[in-house]
Specification:
With 285 residues, the protein is of the alpha+beta class. Helix content is 47%, strand content 17%. It is built from seven helices and ten strands. The strands form two sheets. The protein has a six-stranded antiparallel sheet, with no helix packed on it. A four-stranded antiparallel sheet has the order 5-6-7-8, with no helix packed on it. A hairpin with a 2-residue loop joins strand 9 and strand 10. Helix 1 packs across helix 6, helix 3 crosses helix 5 and helix 4 runs antiparallel to helix 7. Bound molecules: FE2/S2 (inorganic) cluster.
């Protein structure tokens, strides 16, 4: 059986929901939308924070284990420092990962919970490894590190699968092409006051919002996880209107697509809008 087949089985194992669903609801209560969620999501960074922090944990632990195995006595202190660095980085890494995970559904949630459990077990091995070091038992410390590294590799594989295969954390509009040419998309008299209208720009659905006096437009598909922005709520008035995604509450300024609140980290593709000869025309900003 290929590793990907095993991951598919995890994703379709509804038994995991018994554990995953209550945990997800707890995390959502603990990290609601707001400044903390934005910080953990990486809204300030321009992409997700979690993958950067995992590099610190995995890099430190792996380096510690390699030094334990082939570094000799002189590397013992460095290995110890690296193992402690990895353990210290676990809390913020787990917090950012749990925040991201709480926005997933279905198979993503199931695979994510196994990813998290693998990492908890792996990190626990490194905690035990540090204790063994303190007791002067470097052989046990090395073996515990080796086991921890193996278990965390499983967690890393699952994390990679979530991102690279299932698109968790990926900008969901990255394939949308921009065009600087004005394009007529709808008759101006079809726009109702303060009502979202979905129009097509080639293969891309665009939400036009406004009235005969002013119009704003952004891509319909939320950059965060693909939520339908036309079903969201529209706040503010005139050129300051923001759209709030119905799925996880990301808020985008419609005039330029900028992220006001996460968990989105990437701005929404936005459009210049004008009315020309009775038609609403758009072009990418
Ligand atoms: S899909 Fe998550 S905030 Fe829009």
């Amino acid at each position: 059986m290929k590793p990907a087949d095993l991951v598919s089985r995890i994703g379709s194992n509804a038994a995991l929901d018994k554990f995953a669903k209550p945990l997800k609801s707890k995390i959502t209560d603990l990290i609601p939308g707001g400044a903390v969620k934005d910080a953990l999501s990486g809204t300030w960074l321009g992409h997700q924070l979690h993958p950067m922090l995992t590099d610190v944990v995995i890099g430190s632990f792996t380096s510690a284990t390699i030094l334990d195995l082939i570094g000799g006595r002189r590397a013992a202190r460095s290995a110890n420092v690296l193992a402690i660095t990895g353990v210290l980085a676990v809390a913020p890494t787990a917090a950012s990962g749990l925040s991201d995970w709480s926005d997933t559904n279905g198979s993503e949630t199931r695979i994510g919970v196994v990813h998290a459990l693998s990492n908890v077990v792996g990190a626990s091995c490194y905690v035990a490894s540090i204790i063994a070091r303190r007791r002067g038992n470097r052989v046990s410390a090395s073996m515990l590190g080796l086991v921890g590294m193996g278990v965390m590799s499983v967690g890393g594989y699952l994390g990679g699968h979530l991102t690279l295969v299932q698109g968790v954390g990926v900008n969901h509009t990255f394939l949308e092409e921009s065009s600087q040419d004005w394009k007529a998309v709808v008759d101006a008299d079809q726009l109702e006051d303060a009502t979202a209208k979905v129009v097509a720009d080639g293969d891309v659905d665009v939400v036009v919002y406004g009235s005969s006096g002013w119009q704003l437009a952004v891509s319909k598909r939320c950059t965060h996880a693909g939520g339908p922005l036309d079903e969201g709520t529209f706040e503010g008035s005139g050129p300051n209107v923001c759209v709030v995604c119905p799925w996880h509450g990301s808020t985008f300024r419609m005039r330029d697509g900028s992220v006001v609140h996460g968990p989105a980290t990437v701005p929404q593709p936005a459009y210049d809008v004008r009315v020309h000869e009775g038609k609403v025309e758009i072009r990418s900003i």
